Amino acid sequence: MSTQREVGSGALSLRLSAVAEWIPPGRVVADIGSDHAQLLIALSRSGLLNRGIAGEVNQGPWENARHRVKEAKLEHQIQVRKGDGLEVLDTGEAQVIVIAGMGGPLIASILDRGLQKLERVERLVLQPNSGVVHVRRWLHRHGWKLDGENLVREAGILYEVVTAVPGDPHEPYRKTPLPLDAAFEVGPLLWMERHPLLLDKLEAELEGLNRILSQLESARAPEARSRLESMKQKREEWRRWRQWLQQDGN
Length: 250
Fold this sequence. Notes:
By secondary structure, the protein is of the alpha/beta class.
């Protein structure tokens, strides 16, 4: 099956299509770490973009994004800026901020360092490749309410999309039986909506924990033995959540 889906006249991967679905039309959109500006180009070609800002910190990706925008003849609508994280933006300039294709800790760090740039931002659309728990914790701590979560499988890999708006950060977590720390890991909206790929996510996490445990069990260092017990507890937690999900689905 093809991993491409058409968004206007620009093809996006399933991962980026899942990101694009959460971007309201007619907004000023900043894509931080823009991956050749392909998301903004596709939104523009679909008539969904007011104005776009592609941010890149490194010279090579910045040049590639500039080339792609110029090739698409969209310099009038999409600016490519070089800078670290949200420093490419003026306060209040963007209505939607997208950060996709990075680790969760890095996304949280970018948001933390650019906190003042989030004033008047309507929506955050975040797609961490790993460590999504760091993203949910950051949003909860800083007064952003989760209003959308999605899982999409592309080339055998599960990707998670998390979107948030200013609001009560506790609201999405009140309707789930999961403890708060567990909900940060699992995803409260994924749980409430019984997302069809959520069980696959739990299984993948358990497989990863089993691999780590297998490595730790053969290690002799005292710190490895200490971590072994911690990881065993974590595995039991994920097994319990899987069991709850399977029971609720029956």
